[in-house]
Amino acid sequence: MKVKTILVSQPTPKTENSPYLELSEKQKVKIDFRPFIHVEGASAKEVRAQKIDLRNYTAIILTSRNAVDHFFRIAEEMRFAVPDDMKYFCESEAVAYYLQKYVVYRKRKIYVGERTFADLAKLIKKYKDEKFLLPSSDKLKELVPETLNELGVKWERGIFYKTRISDLTDLENVFYDILVFFSPSGIESLFQNFPDFKQNETRIAAFGNSTIKAATDAGLKCNIQAPTPESPSMTMALEKYIIEVNKKQHLDK
Predict the structure, then answer these.
(1) CA 226, 227, 230: angle at the middle one, nearest 5?
(2) Which terminus has fewer CB within 10 Å in the chain: N or C?
(3) Along the 253 residues of the chain, how does pLDDT read in single tens digits?
(4) CATH number, domain with residue 25
């Protein structure tokens, strides 16, 4: 079936030069955005209950923009002045760039991974004397603590925010050719909102091994997978699929 509509399970991009906008215009497809999950911040009291004292750490591991926002929110709520010599280990350039919202980038010690946590681990390994704090969601990929434990560094995890399922019941009678997912929580949200969901002709796009596994475990067929060597981004994977399918439909006519 030809692809005409796509639902991306994320918030609408804030930038005008979003690759999704380019994809929509180029391939003449309608792309809607709707977060299937949302984040709620933990309170300073909840963080203290985890025996987290921000004064004890010399380095912060940041795996997402949510981690950045909630670390600085908790620091403010605890009236903790983040020292200028604090080290920041960011999983990607996007996270490091976002850090500029809170710190003067060129005046801080910021270490940036290429894209994955394994890439960042290589940098963390060089700083074994630091005391690391990992501000995270209540849902964390097992790879992260496993990797940090293998490195033998001093680290602690703090749950600074929680992942919650969004209410999607207004979409019950709305159908899309492709649903795009980026986390196992997104798959969980789909079935929590629509327990009787049947894939039928709907194509599923999944980003990351854990998301692909969650989709497959839930009985879904992943028609589009990313990242791959040919399609390192979800938009590239979608475009490749759309060109192939829509071209085939055109030839069949």
Answers:
(1) 100
(2) C
(3) 899 999 999 999 988 889 999 999 999 999 999 999 999 999 999 999 999 999 999 999 999 999 999 999 999 999 999 999 999 999 989 899 999 999 987 778 999 988 789 889 999 999 999 999 999 999 888 889 999 999 999 999 999 999 999 999 999 999 999 999 999 999 999 999 999 999 999 999 999 988 999 999 999 999 999 999 999 999 999 999 999 998 766 555 4
(4) 3.40.50.10090
- Where a domain ends, among 143, 163, 183? 163
Contact by Cβ (8 Å): 156, 50: no
Determine the pLDDT at residue 252. 54
- Which one of 102, 130, 163 terminates a domain? 163
Residue 11's domain comprises 5-36+169-252
- Say if residue 47 is in the same domain as residue 65: yes
Residue 8 has which token pair? 């991306």
Q: How buried is residue 253: exposed, middle or buried, by Cβ count under 10 Å (0-12/13-18/19+)?
A: exposed
Judgement on whether residues 158 and 175 belong to the same structural domain of the protein: no
Nearest to 83 by CA among 63, 101, 61, 60: 60
First-residue to last-residue Cα distance in the chain: 12
Contact (CB, 8 A) for 132 and 52: no
CA separation for the pair 232, 248 (Å, rounded): 24
Is the same domain home to 56 and 27?
no
Is 181 found in the same domain as 148? no
Encoded amino acid at 86, one letter: M
Report the predicted TM-score, pTM, of the whole model to 2 decimal places: 0.79
Q: In the numeric block, which tokens belong to residue 118?
A: 């394994």
